[in-house]
Amino acid sequence: MDTLRFVQQAPRRVNGPRLNGWLAQFDAIGRTAGGINRVAYSEADLAGRTFTLGLFRDSGLTPRIDTLGNIIARVPGTQAGLAPILIGSHIDSVTDGGNYDGPVGSFAAIEVARSLREQGVTLRHPLDVVVWQNEEGGTVGSKGYIGELTEADLAKTARSGKTVREGIGIIGGNVARIGESVRKRGDVACYIELHIEQGGNLERGRRDIGVVQGIVGLRWFEVTITGFANHAGATPMDQRQDAMLAAAKFTVAVHDAVRAEPGRQVATVGRLTVSPNTTNVIPGQVVLTVDLRDLDQTKIDRLEARFKQLANEIGAATKTTFAFSVLTDSKPALSDERVMEWVEASAASLKASYNRMPSGAGHDAQEIAHIAPMGMIFIPSVGGISHSPKEFSRPEDIARGADVLLNAVLAADAGLR
Ligand SMILES: [Zn+2]
C-alpha cells in the first residue's frame, strides 16, 4: 500500500489581495451619501454587472447572460457526462446597503475559477460560476433557475421602480424564454455559496467560518385582537376590554415562550396598528404581526400552537378575542450533510476555526436547495451589521472564506459521485 496517497494534500489558496482589490473598486459603483445603492435594474446595478462581466473576462472565463438575466460562465471538466458544480452569489444591494452582502461570494467564485486555472487544476466536473440577478427583491434569478418564478413575481415592482418583467429585459434576459434557463434535480451536482454572516455570532464566538446548516423557515402571522373602544375617563379599570393591554401582554408572552426552550428560534412582534389610536379612548382593536423563524419546521409548528394557547389565556384575562391568519410561510431549506463535511474539511485543512450555524437571512441558496445538494460558507460581519453602509468584513476574512470555498470545491469534485 502506498502510504503517501494518504498524506493530506496541502490546501490551495486564492489570490486574496486581488479579490479584495476587486471589492475595493466595486465600492465606488452605486455609492451615495446614504450607502451602496445598487438596487436591481437601476443604473448602478447595470454598471455593477458591466464591471462584473469584465472580471469574468479578465479571469479567462466566458460569461453569458441566461434568459433570466443571471450571469453564468462554465469551466469545462475532464470527465464527460457530469453535472456542474455551481458556485456564486449576487451583486445587487438593498437601498442604502453595503458593499459586502453578495459581492463577496460572487467575486470569490470568479477568483476560485481563476486560481484553479492559474494553478493548472482542472476539475472532473464542469464548474459553473454564477451571479444571480435581483436577490434582494425576492431571490428572483435563483427562483427562476429552479422554475418557481410566477406571473405575480414578474409583475412585482423592484426598488428601482421597474417591474421584474421589465428588469429582465433591461439586464439582457428574455422573459418570453425564461423556461430555457430552468434546471431540474440532477442538472446541478452541488451548489456552494460564500456569503457574509450578516449577524454577530461568528464574531462573538471567535470563529473564522460558519458552516451553514440551512436557511431558516419563516412564518408570518397577523393577529387581530378585538376588545371594546370606550371612554378613557369614564370606564373603570376593572370594566375594560383593552385590546392594547392584551397586545402588550401577548408581545411579552411571545418573547418569553421563544426564550423558554433551548435553540436559535426567534420571534418578533414588529408592526402594531391600534384603533382608534387616540389619547382618550381605550383601544378597541389592535392588529399586530409576528415573525417566527427556525431551522426546524416542527418547532415552528409547536411555537405557533403555543402562541395560540397563550392568546386564549390572555384573551380570557382581558376580555378580548384573538384571531390569527398566516401571511407568509416558507419552509426551512436544509444544507446537504456531505457539502457541510466538505466545507468543514476545507476549513480544517486551512487551520480555520469553524462551527455549524443556521442562516437567519434568506439567500439564493435556499432556492437551489430544491434541486441540488446545497451548502453555504459564512465569514464574520464586523459588529454583526448588514444591510447598512456600516457593513464590513475584514480583507483577511474575505480571503480566508474564498480559500475555504476553493478547497470545498476540490473536495466536492473528488467526493461527488
Ligand atoms: Zn446577500
Describe the overall structure.
The structure is a single chain. This protein has helices at residues 16-26, 43-58, 103-118, 140-145, 151-155, 164-170, 201-205, 243-259, 297-318, 337-349, 365-368, 395-415, and strands at residues 31-32, 35-36, 64-65, 71-75, 85-90, 127-132, 190-196, 209-215, 217-226, 230-231, 266-275, 281-282, 285-294, 321-330, 333-334, 354-359, 374-379. It is an alpha+beta fold. The protein has 2 domains: 3-215 and 333-415, 3-Layer(aba) Sandwich (Aminopeptidase), CATH 3.40.630.10; 217-330, Alpha-Beta Plaits. Strands 3, 4, 5, 6, 7, 8, 15, 16 and 17 form a 9-stranded mixed sheet that branches. The model is unreliable at 1-7 (pLDDT under 50).
Short description:
The chain is α+β, with helices and mostly antiparallel strands. Helix content is 34%, strand content 23%. β1 (31-32) and β2 form a beta hairpin.
Order of helices and strands: HEEHEEEHEHHHEHEEEHEEEHEEHEHEH
> Biggest β-sheet, characterized?
9 strands, mixed
The structure class reads alpha+beta
Name of the top-level CATH class of the largest domain: Alpha Beta
- In angstroms, what separates the terminal alpha carbons? 24 Å
Mean pLDDT: 96
Provide the fold topology:
Layout: H1 16-26, E1 31-32, E2 35-36, H2 43-58, E3 64-65, E4 71-75, E5 85-90, H3 103-118, E6 127-132, H4 140-145, H5 151-155, H6 164-170, E7 190-196, H7 201-205, E8 209-215, E9 217-226, E10 230-231, H8 243-259, E11 266-275, E12 281-282, E13 285-294, H9 297-318, E14 321-330, E15 333-334, H10 337-349, E16 354-359, H11 365-368, E17 374-379, H12 395-415
Zinc ion binds at residues 90, 101-102, 135, 195, 363.
